[in-house]
Amino acid sequence: MGELDELRSDLVAEQEALDSIVAGLDEEEWASATPSPGWTVADQIGHLTYFDGTAATAITDPEAFAAGLEVLFAAAGGIGVDAFTLDAFRALPPARQLEAWRHNRQVLAEAAAVLTDGARVPWYGPSMGARSFLTARLMEVWAHGRDIVDAVGATRQASDRLRHIAQLGYLTRGWSYTVRGETAPEGEIRLVLTGPSGQTWTWGPDDAAETVEGSAEDFCLVVTQRRHLDDTDLVVDDLGRHWLLRAQAFAGGPTDGPAPGNS
Prior knowledge:
Number of domains: 2
CATH superfamily of the largest domain: dinb family like domain
Distance between the termini: 37 Å
Largest sheet: 3 strands, mixed
Helix content: 40-55%
Number of helices: 11
Strand content: 5-15%
Shape: globular
Strand order of the largest sheet: 4-3-5
Number of strands: 5
Order of helices and strands: HHHHHHEEHHHEEEHH
Structural class: mainly alpha
C-alpha cells in the first residue's frame, strides 16, 4: 500500500473511531461544552462536516471552491465564520447532525479516491500536496475528536495513525513562526517519538543541535494546541521549548493553546 492509499484508509478509520463515540451520545451530551471556547460537541462535528464538504469541493471543483472561499472571507467580516459555517448545522437535531457528517465524510472519501501523488489541492492559504491535504483532514478529525473526548469523558485508544500527524507537526515548525510574523531560531531539531504500538519514529538530522523526545500522543496534543507543553512528559531543550510553545500544525491565523494546568 502506498502512502497516499494509507492516508486515505487512516482518515476513514479516524473518522469511524470518532463516530463510534458520538453515535452513542444523548441530546444533552451533544450540547456539552468542549475545551474550544463557545463550542459544543455538536459544533465540533459541525466544523468537521462543513470542512469535509469544502475539502471534497476543493478536490473535484477548484473553481467552485474558490468562489466559496470568497463568500467565507466576506462572512468573516460580517456575521462571522462560526455563524456562517455552523448556524445551519446547529439548527438540526443530533441524529440529523450525525447523518450530515457521515454524508460529507463519504463525499470526501469519494473525492479523495481520485487524488494522485502529484496532485495539488487549493485550500485556505497556499495549495497543498495530496498527502499533506489528507494528513490535515486526519489531523482535524483527531484534534476535534480530542475536544469531544475531553468534554464527555470518553476513552479513545491512541493508534499509530498519529504518525501522520506527528510528521505534519514536525514539518510545520517553520510555519509556527511564520504565522506569528517571527523568524525561527537557527538550529536543527531532531524529533524522537514513541508511537502507541511501541515503535520509535524519528524526524530530523542525527547531528541536530537539540532533540525533542517523548510520546507521539503528547507531541500531537501540543502541535494541535490541545495540551500545553508543561502538561506533557515531552523532554525538550531551549530550541524545542521555544518552538513547542508556539507550535501550530494547522492553517489560519495565529492561535494559542491552553495555558498550563488547563488541559
